[in-house]
Amino acid sequence: MRSNGIEIKILIALNELYNNPTPIDLTPQEAALYWRRLVQPAANATGLELVSPTLNAKKSAVTWFADFLKECYDKRNNSLHPCDIELSKMFAIHQYDWRESPRLLWRG
Prior knowledge:
The chain is an alpha/beta fold. The protein has one domain. It has helices at 28-46, 59-74, and strands spanning 2-3, 6-7, 10-12, 49-51, 88-90. The strands form two sheets. The protein has a three-stranded parallel beta sheet, with helices on one face. The protein has a two-stranded antiparallel ribbon with strand order 1-2. Strand 3 (10-12), helix 1 (28-46) and strand 4 (49-51) form a beta-alpha-beta unit. Helix 1 (28-46) packs across helix 2.
């Protein structure tokens, strides 16, 4: 797939839905619903590789992601909108961390 001359290969969706309480962010159950009804079909229809919802090392993020995976797995045999987490070719994992002391790199 191309957009403005740039080849698009992957679809990343559902970023950091564990940071805010609902209704700002989706519950894992709501996310799995949108995932199986919208995100997976969009990736399939466009031929894009699917990337999982984002995950980081915060306990709330790990819990949210585990609940999302369980909900998706539980809906794997849904006749109308099955959820297939194995369609995700990559997991989106990121961590915000600062362990270095600020250093003066340049003096003018």
